[in-house]
Amino acid sequence: MKDNDNDRELLSFWAFGDLHYRDRIKWKALHTPRMMVMFDDLHLLWHEKSLPSFCVSPGDIVNNGSPANYAFARAELQDQLGEIPFYPGLGNHEFLPDSDDDHLHGENEFCAAWQKPVRYAWMEVSIVCIMLDHPSPFYPGGREPNPHIFFSEESLTFLDDTLAKYADHRAIIFAHCPLRDTVLDRDPERNLDDDSRDTFFFVENSEDVRSILAHHLNASLYISGHTHSGWRSPQLIFTEILGGHPITHVNLMSPWYTGRKRGPHRDAEGKLQYASDDPDVLTSFAFQVYSQHISIGIRDHLGKVWLGQWDVPF
After folding, report:
1. How far is the C-alpha of 19 from the C-alpha of 110, rounded, in Å?
2. Are 182 and 235 spatial neighbours (Cβ–Cβ below 8 Å)?
3. What are the Cα distances from residue 75, in Å, to 19, 78, 103?
4. pTM beyond cutoff 0.85
5. Would you give the distance in Å from CA 201 to the centre of its chain?
6. Model pLDDT for residues 27-60, shown as the tens digit of each residue
7. What Å distances lie between residue 106 and 74, 78, 138, 155, 294, CA to CA?
8. Is the separation of the CB atoms in 170 and 220 below 8 Å?
């Protein structure tokens, strides 16, 4: 791209899908090598070009919300990212106990670990970035799982108010869960992927979110994770028109595993095993933000190749 007044780069950043750090020896034996492959490739890319303005991961950074897992994730990411700012989000796994004897975890532990509120905003050059929180995956007062995801009134108000406050700045929104009817299943008959039409994998008050996004012309990009969608899942990157302006949804594949019933599991003898997807890809997402558009690249760190690149309106 030529660097001119109509098409100049404003910033670049990298986004990671669900990372699932866990401070358990057997877990790390499977997990750490994949993270090392990803970061080794990223370090080479960043050395060849330039460091990103920031890195971000909108939730499920830890597999369970224990202090040990938070401490491990923070140490690992600090070691890999160095001085690159990192912006975390709250996902459903941050609430989960780390064992049958462990208690449920919550927002206060997330805030203490990352020194961030559960929902917040920050400025990058002329762009406002908005991080939304994820509701607890349990019904109040117990451990019964709640399969229905609704953004709270506080979250909706925060999104509406922040977009209004920064009306003169284009906005990028991060949230753990996708909106309904965005990312889809590679093969619905075989149900290869959790997707945005499966309960628990879409925001059930998505129309309220879309109404807010439609009302604010500065809303441009909604980036989420949660589904662990596989490569070539339809609408991984999907642009729709709301209120007469484009909104692009980006669903971040997880570098830990993709596809339903993949990843870590225990065999008949109780040993922790790992089942990879087909194809097995280990991805993160690169964003280059220009004056008039955003270039999005999906990098497979196993093959050290770009799987695809998209240019979306901004």
Report:
1. 15
2. yes
3. 14, 5, 23
4. yes
5. 13
6. 999 999 999 999 999 999 999 989 999 999 999 9
7. 17, 23, 11, 16, 34
8. yes
Q: Where are the domains of the chain?
A: 9-313
CB half-sphere exposure, 231, CA atoms < 13 A: 19
69-75 contacts: CB < 8 A, separation 24 or more?
69/21, 69/22, 69/23, 69/98, 70/109, 70/110, 70/113, 70/114, 71/23, 71/113, 72/21, 72/22, 72/23, 73/19, 73/21, 74/113, 74/114
Say if CB 35 and CB 78 are below 8 A apart. no
Residues 90/116, Cβ–Cβ less than 8 Å: no
Provide the pLDDT confidence category of residue 172 given band limits of 50, 70 and 90. very high
Looking up tokens 């990298």, which residue turns up? 14
CA 155, 66, 229 angle in degrees (round to 5)? 60
Q: What is the 3-state secondary structure (H, E, C) of 267-309?
A: CCCCCEEEECCCCCCCEEEEEEEECCEEEEEEEECCCCEEEEE
Domain at 9-313, CATH from 3.30.1830.10, 2.60.40.1570, 3.90.25.10, 3.60.21.10: 3.60.21.10
Assign 171 to helix, strand or coil. Answer: strand
Contact 195, 143 (CB under 8 A): no
- Give the separation between CA 293 and CA 246, rounded to whole angstroms: 11
Task: Quick: pLDDT tens for 116-157.
Answer: 999 999 999 999 999 999 999 999 988 999 999 999 999 999
210-267: pLDDT as tens digits: 999 999 999 999 999 999 999 999 999 999 999 999 999 999 999 999 999 999 999 9
Q: Rounded to a whole number, what is the distance in angstroms from the first to the last CA of the chain?
A: 15
Residues near 94 by beta carbon (within 8 Å), at least 6 away in sequence:
59, 60, 61, 62, 65, 105, 109, 110, 134
Tell me how far apart the alpha carbons of residues 76 and 312 are, in angstroms, rounded to a whole number.
32
